Amino acid sequence: LDTIFNEAVDIMDKLEENGYQAYFVGGCVRDSLLKRPISDVDIATSAPPDKVQQLFPAVIPVGVMHGTVIVRHLGKSYEVTTFRVDGKYTDKRHPDEVEFIQTIDGDLKRRDFTINALAMNREGRIIDLFNGIDDLHQKVIRTVGKGIERFREDSLRIIRAIRFSSQLGFFIDPATLDDMKVVAPEITQLAVERVRVEITKFFGGRHINLGMDYLRSTELYKHLPVMINYPYIINKLPLKLFPLKDFSEVVVLFHYMEPAIPIKEWVTDWKCSNKEKWNVKELIASIDYFNKNGLDNWLVYCLSSAHIDAFIRLVTNLYSAENIPKRSKVMSIYNSLTIHQRDELKINGHDLIALFPSKKKGPWIHKTLKMVEKQVVLNHVANKNNELKDWVKWNPPGTN
Ligand code: ATP
Ligand code: MG
């Protein structure tokens, strides 16, 4: 067993001691067999959710209706989900009702792909009812059961197929691929929040270019927010993409493919959070500045450590190799900056008011500070109170 499973074995033991079955399931089993880093360990059990809540001291009942309880153990979270079969997905969001069952078989059958329908007990023995291990070896994504039915039940699985392809470098079984094409128009009915999770993972995949081939050939993009209105945008993307991390980076990439589409449309239709909207704004401002001025202290300062990597990922997609600044270069500029944030400036609003006693308080203060900030960052003036005051005297604020 992977060490990551060892930490979770206590949870399995507790369930088994109380007469219930328990298995590791889904992504963690798949990734452990692939020797990939495991993101989270999920457990499936015959214990009903209220029992799970009673058995463990620290639980978060996130989705008791659907059988999921988060168990906190040794500082980590584990999703413990009762064996279940899903009802219909009439609202295309969640199954209307789920039925809890007593055996793992039915629980594995409801899962999307054979490689995701593997279970493992605490000794490391694998349950593989649908030849998932074969498919892992052959690097194939194949639905559990008939694709048409499984995709009609939940069309998010179509997007998940291309995201696993992008993450794992796996091919999609030809029959599954045909069925994806047939059901693809139904993805317009999905909750955008669910779609975004998969699309973000898709663009983050190491094998994004294989994924892109499938995104194109299935014509799935024609049914995604915004792209539904501008399907030609797919042909503007670079032929070779590099992985992105955050959804805001995906928006920024697409923005530069077709700047005529209002950015508002992207962030609204994809239901971006305020944080993401802010990231999008900052990254676009940085890239626009880079286009005009190239890499300088001011750009690196404005990027701040939070956006440096996103910026590099984006320019890597937007420019040819010789024009892409190296991370080491950006970092060395960052480390050489005289100041890293506004409050390190050795002059403040009070100084300015004292320098210009006849001026009424107003936006000029903020504006002047911003100018001084830029001068300091560009090393045009030293960050010393007296020198900054002198600079301001020679460059007095305008009349506004
Ligand atoms: P990741 O490493 O990205 O978390 P994962 O395989 O764990 O990959 P999750 O979205 O966390 O993916 O889902 C956990 C498991 O639940 C999957 O492996 C799969 O067995 C099942 N599953 C998730 N979503 C669906 C779905 N829409 N339809 C059927 N089964 C699903
Ligand atoms: Mg997971």
UniProtKB/TrEMBL annotation:
> Do you know which InterPro entries this protein is assigned to?
Bact_CCA-adding_enz_type3_sf (IPR050264), CCA-adding_enz_C (IPR032810), CCA-adding_enz_firmicutes (IPR023068), NT_sf (IPR043519), PolA_pol_head_dom (IPR002646), PolyA_RNA-bd (IPR032828)
Q: Name one GO molecular function term.
A: ATP binding
Residues of the Poly A polymerase head domain: 22-142
Which reactions does this protein catalyse?
A: a tRNA with a 3' CCA end + 2 CTP + ATP = a tRNA with a 3' CCACCA end + 3 diphosphate; a tRNA precursor + 2 CTP + ATP = a tRNA with a 3' CCA end + 3 diphosphate
Binding-site positions, Mg(2+): D40, D42
Enzyme class comes to transferase
Name the coenzymes or cofactors required.
Mg(2+)
Question: Quick check: keyword Coiled coil in the entry?
Answer: no
User: Among its keywords, does the record have Iron?
Assistant: no
The biological processes this protein is annotated with in GO are: RNA repair; tRNA 3'-terminal CCA addition
Superkingdom, natural source: Bacteria
Secretion signal span: none
Q: Which HAMAP family match?
A: CCA_bact_type3
State the family named in the UniProt similarity comment for this chain.
Belongs to the tRNA nucleotidyltransferase/poly(A) polymerase family. Bacterial CCA-adding enzyme type 3 subfamily.
What is the recorded function of this protein according to its Swiss-Prot or TrEMBL entry? Catalyzes the addition and repair of the essential 3'-terminal CCA sequence in tRNAs without using a nucleic acid template. Adds these three nucleotides in the order of C, C, and A to the tRNA nucleotide-73, using CTP and ATP as substrates and producing inorganic pyrophosphate. tRNA 3'-terminal CCA addition is required both for tRNA processing and repair. Also involved in tRNA surveillance by mediating tandem CCA addition to generate a CCACCA at the 3' terminus of unstable tRNAs. While stable tRNAs receive only 3'-terminal CCA, unstable tRNAs are marked with CCACCA and rapidly degraded.
- Misc. comment: A single active site specifically recognizes both ATP and CTP and is responsible for their addition.
Q: What is this protein's name?
A: CCA-adding enzyme
Organism of this sequence: Virgibacillus phasianinus
Gene that this polypeptide is encoded by = cca
